[in-house]
Write a structure and sequence with these properties.
heterodimer, A: mainly alpha, globular, B: 153 residues, 6 helices, 65% helix
Chain lengths: 147, 153
């Protein structure tokens, strides 16, 4: 169980939005992670390079916080040893295939698309939030408590 | 490649790195890179943690304001033109994709951004990175091959 952390959530959210805004201002591109990772092996030269550098920046930014963010309550995530392997594998396939099919994930549809007032992104965001809530609530509660 | 092109490419890559840096720092600070934090929001049955709503609200809020100003420009700073999604149809592909993504998201607590940030927490995050990232990439690239848009920059 996690506890409500409103300050770091809001500031972190503002940073995510600022990163996405800087992307649009400087390169004119949408900071959608599934699109950037998904297109990476199919893109060439400069298009490949900016995508790779954005991902490198993302990993570096998270890594800096993991190392120096202790006083803000940040800690590096540690693997959940007891978490079923099949759930991680199935989840990876579903997240990857679903975001490729639906042309976006939490960043592309949820943040950038909503900010652009795209009706497609609004529909996608509502649907994946609902599907996520139903899945997590069912798995973590109903199924576990069943005999 | 002439010197001007080379220096423009350097600035493009620096800008992309900077955008990723701020984005990744935001993900880590808001703890969205912790799947238990995400599941604490998606799971309504236990002690519900509304943090994700503030993350999404903060990110979308500031981006809404910034995007409105940015999109008044004729072009971005370092590229000749904006490259924005052109699809407008709400079709079965969009809906099915969002449903499958939501299923997977609720199963593990990972979406693509936080999953990439697993690489910053190695070796402690090794088990999850090893079990989640390869299927994520296979799913993404398989989906991409099947549904490849006509215009793919």
């Amino acid at each position: 169980m996690s506890s409500f952390t409103p300050v770091s959530a809001l500031i972190g959210g503002l940073l995510i939005g600022a990163g996405a805004s800087w992307m649009l201002l400087s390169l004119g591109r949408i900071a959608g992670i599934s699109g950037i990772v998904g297109r990476l092996p199919f893109s060439r030269r400069a298009e490949f390079a900016w995508r790779a550098f954005f991902l490198l920046g993302l990993v570096t930014g998270a890594g800096l916080l993991y190392h120096f963010g202790g006083k803000f309550g940040v800690r590096a995530p540690i693997s959940r040893i007891s978490f079923p392997a099949w759930e991680l594998i199935a989840s990876g396939l579903l997240v990857g295939f679903g975001t490729a099919l639906g042309s976006g994930c939490t960043s592309g549809h949820g943040v950038c698309g909503m900010a652009r007032r795209s009706p497609r992104s609004l529909v996608a965001t509502v649907i994946f939030l609902l599907a996520g809530i139903v899945t997590a609530s069912a798995l973590r509660h109903w199924l576990e408590n069943w005999p | 490649m002439n010197p001007d092109e080379a220096s423009l490419l350097e600035r493009v890559l620096l800008a992309a790195f900077g955008a990723g840096l701020v984005f990744g720092a935001g993900l880590a600070l808001s703890a969205m890179t912790h799947p238990e934090k995400v599941l604490g929001f998606l799971d309504l049955s236990g002690h519900w943690d509304p943090s994700l709503l503030l993350v999404l609200g903060g990110a979308t809020g500031i981006a809404s304001v910034a995007f409105a100003f940015i999109l008044r420009r004729r072009s971005p700073l370092l590229m000749p033109s904006f490259d924005l999604p052109i699809a407008t149809r709400i079709d079965r592909r969009l809906v099915l994709g969002a449903v499958l993504f939501g299923l997977g998201w609720g199963l593990s607590g990972y979406c693509p951004g936080p999953a990439m940030a697993l690489l910053a927490a190695l070796p402690g995050s090794g088990r999850e990175a090893l079990l989640f990232l390869p299927p994520l990439l296979i799913g993404l690239w398989l989906g991409r091959l099947i549904t490849r848009a006509p215009k793919d920059p």
